[in-house]
Design a protein that fits this description.
Blueprint: E1 3-5, H1 17-26, E2 34-38, E3 44-51, E4 58-65, E5 74-79, H2 85-98, E6 102-107, H3 118-131, E7 139-140, E8 144-145, H4 146-152, E9 157-161, E10 169-170, H5 171-174, E11 180-185, H6 193-201, E12 205-208, H7 216-232
Helix pairs in contact: 2-3, 2-7
Length: about 230
């Protein structure tokens, strides 16, 4: 399947330049060849190429499926960027493939990385979404501090995963199906106790992701897959 991403599809029926080059130069698609297109907001389209130009390949939509792959829950994960940026990139790739709605990089007290390249992460989102045939692309929010996130979150279910020896419940036992949720994942040094206390005072439920101590990016993927499994049962 030749899958392409075209944002703002209602306004134009031409592949972006990079996608056009891939279609014409790499895949060598010709007039009347069939392609599949996603718009990132739930639309999946079957289309026929009408002008195989390497910079602006035109097409004609022949079939439309709206809300393709729509989930019965909304998942937002706020995660501290890892010192090794490739680990954060891996999380974003895998979370997109599994299914996620929002990703917010957060700066915490013990964060070792406070700068990210959003443009590169957006490209990873697009590539992973195309690879896994996702019509809904996650929203990658600007990086913010833990305190800033605490002021603007609005999920109906709120969880904070941490490693302190305190009473915590398994995430899989706390998720309610068909609801929106926000899960906080801390940096390599974990959240500070003050951050955990602040989150709990604002209604966040402290949770465990299992018996193992997980790396930040692994914890993010486990949280994402747990939500997917619980909400699809």
């Amino acid at each position: 399947m030749a899958l392409f991403y075209v944002p703002n599809l209602s306004n134009v029926q031409i592949l972006p330049e990079e996608e056009s080059q891939h279609a014409v130069k790499v895949l060598r698609l010709q007039v009347a060849d069939i392609i599949t297109i996603v718009d990132g907001i739930g639309g999946l389209y079957t289309a026929k190429i009408t002008n195989p130009h390497p910079k602006h390949c035109a097409f004609e939509i022949t079939e439309t499926v709206l809300e393709y792959g729509k989930r019965n829950y909304k998942l937002h994960i706020a995660i501290a960027p890892t010192k090794n940026i490739e680990r954060l990139e891996w999380f974003i790739e895998k979370a997109t493939e599994i299914g996620i709605d929002e990703i917010t990089p957060i700066i915490c007290r013990f964060s070792e990385r406070k700068i990210i390249k959003a443009e590169r992460l957006e490209k990873i989102v697009i590539s992973a979404a195309k690879q896994s045939i996702k019509a809904y692309f996650p929203q990658l929010n600007p990086i913010c501090t833990f305190d800033e996130l605490m002021k603007k979150h609005n999920a109906s279910q709120k969880f904070i995963a941490h490693c302190y020896e305190e009473d915590k419940k398994l995430l899989q036992n706390e998720i309610c199906n068909s609801k929106d949720m926000l899960i906080l994942i801390g940096p390599e040094g974990d959240f500070s106790k003050e951050e955990v206390a602040k989150a709990m005072s604002l209604g966040f439920i402290p949770v465990s992701l299992g018996n193992s101590r997980l790396r930040t990016e692994t914890a993010g993927v486990v949280a994402c897959s747990t939500a997917a499994i619980v909400c699809q049962i």
